[in-house]
Amino acid sequence: MPPEGWKNLDNNLIVSPKFDDRGLIPAIVQNAQTRQVLTLAYMNAESLRLTQQTGETHFWSRSRQELWHKGATSGNIQKVVEMTLDCDLDALLVRVIPAGPACHTGAVSCFFNPLPLTVSPTQIGEENHED
């Protein structure tokens, strides 16, 4: 029996994403050529449908509460090469060919703030508790 979220349609198994209680699914966007992770955004059912129909990324802006077509104003569109759901069907990997930077800061990737592997409790806002 297929896992929850899978549907049988005319004897063909198709997968159905699991959106959270706000109707969103996290979308990890990766450069299809370099494999660099570009951003983490969120999609709702409509932005996912638009992405599938147009071949360009569309997201749901949680801060503005509106659909967002990546690159519509900047020209930095992302052409979708492949979309894959994770094993739990609740996260999406979107492999793209970007036309420019992914980040609103102008950086290629939104991930450019290194975090040390070893941190003291005060660095992460916790008190040092002795056992």
UniProtKB/TrEMBL annotation:
Enumerate the SUPFAM superfamilies for this protein.
Answer: HisI-like
Subcellular location(s): the record lists:
Cytoplasm
Q: What is its EC number?
A: 3.5.4.19
Which reaction does this enzyme catalyse, per its entry? Answer: 1-(5-phospho-beta-D-ribosyl)-5'-AMP + H2O = 1-(5-phospho-beta-D-ribosyl)-5-[(5-phospho-beta-D-ribosylamino)methylideneamino]imidazole-4-carboxamide; 1-(5-phospho-beta-D-ribosyl)-ATP + H2O = 1-(5-phospho-beta-D-ribosyl)-5'-AMP + diphosphate + H(+)
Pathways involved: Amino-acid biosynthesis; L-histidine biosynthesis; L-histidine from 5-phospho-alpha-D-ribose 1-diphosphate: step 2/9; Amino-acid biosynthesis; L-histidine biosynthesis; L-histidine from 5-phospho-alpha-D-ribose 1-diphosphate: step 3/9
Q: Which metal ions or organic cofactors does this protein require, according to UniProt?
A: Zn(2+); Mg(2+)
Q: Which GO terms describe its biological process?
A: L-histidine biosynthetic process
Signal peptide positions (record) = none
Q: How is the cofactor bound?
A: Binds 1 zinc ion per subunit.
Q: Write one Gene Ontology MF term.
A: magnesium ion binding
Q: Which InterPro entries does the UniProt entry name for this protein? A: PRA-CH, PRib_AMP_CycHydrolase_dom, PRib_AMP_CycHydrolase_sf
- The main place the protein resides is cytoplasm
Name the residues that bind Zn(2+). Answer: 87, 103, 110
Q: Which UniProt keywords apply?
A: Amino-acid biosynthesis, Cytoplasm, Histidine biosynthesis, Hydrolase, Magnesium, Metal-binding, Zinc
- Residues annotated as binding Mg(2+): 86, 88, 90
Recorded hits in Gene3D superfamilies, A to Z, give: Phosphoribosyl-AMP cyclohydrolase (3.10.20.810)
For the Phosphoribosyl-AMP cyclohydrolase domain, which residue ranges apply?
Answer: 40-112
* GO CC terms, sorted: cytoplasm
Per the record, the similarity remark reads: Belongs to the PRA-CH family.
Q: How does it assemble?
A: Homodimer.
Q: What does this protein do?
A: Catalyzes the hydrolysis of the adenine ring of phosphoribosyl-AMP.
What is this protein called in UniProt?
Phosphoribosyl-AMP cyclohydrolase
